[in-house]
């Protein structure tokens, strides 16, 4: 997979902390400023799908006691849940922390190899 700036930033940031859904979409928006909400949502879901299918991140949620808890369902099911949450409310606050991404070991390996100067 050829990583774009959004994917590189997610993996770079993911070495230190989990990425929440709102941060992922904010990166997508910054790379696609003239797009509309539907396009931002589509690209956000595609970025998550590619990273998860390539084994670079796990998708899940944050629990107060356990921290990051990965969803054990197929990525297609996770993406449906995320999309439903995003569509259900026009208010970013309602869905921005619905899902979180955690780097896998492979994702951390790539994230650690990224020079911050490469990121826009």
Tell me the layout of helices and strands.
Elements (H helix, E strand, L loop, with lengths): L4 H10 L4 E2 H11 L5 H17 L3 E7 L3 E4 L4 H14 L3 H4 L4 E4 L1 H9 L7
Helix pairs in contact: 1-2, 1-6, 2-3, 3-4
Architecture overview:
The chain has helices spanning 5-14, 21-31, 37-53, 75-88, 92-95, 105-113, and strands spanning 19-20, 57-63, 67-70, 100-103. The chain is α+β, with helices and mostly antiparallel strands. The chain is globular, with a radius of gyration of 14 Å.
The strand order across the widest sheet is 1-4-2-3
Helix and strand content put the structural class at: alpha+beta
Task: Name the average pLDDT.
Answer: 93
Number of helices: 6
Strand content: 5-15%
The description of the largest β-sheet is:
4 strands, antiparallel
Return Rg in Å: 14 Å
Principal-axis shape equals: globular
Poorly predicted ranges: none
Helix content: 40-55%
First-residue to last-residue Cα separation: 19 Å
What is the N-to-C order of secondary-structure elements (H for helix, E for strand)?
HEHHEEHHEH
Give the strand tally: 4
Relevant terms:
120 residues, alpha+beta, 4 strands, globular
What's a quick, concise take on this entry?
With 120 residues, the protein is α+β, with helices and mostly antiparallel strands. The chain is 54% helix and 14% strand.
């Amino acid at each position: 997979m050829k990583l774009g700036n959004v994917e590189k930033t997610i993996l770079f940031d993911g070495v230190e902390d989990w990425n929440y859904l709102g941060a992922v979409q904010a990166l997508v928006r910054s790379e696609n400023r003239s797009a509309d909400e539907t396009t931002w949502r589509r690209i956000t879901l595609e970025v998550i799908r590619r990273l998860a299918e390539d084994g670079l991140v796990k998708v899940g949620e944050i629990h107060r006691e356990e921290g990051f808890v990965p969803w054990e369902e197929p990525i297609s099911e996770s993406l449906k849940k995320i999309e439903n949450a995003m569509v259900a409310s026009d208010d970013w606050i309602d869905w921005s922390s619905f899902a979180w991404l955690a780097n896998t070991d492979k994702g951390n390996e790539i994230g650690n190899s990224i020079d911050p100067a490469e990121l826009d």
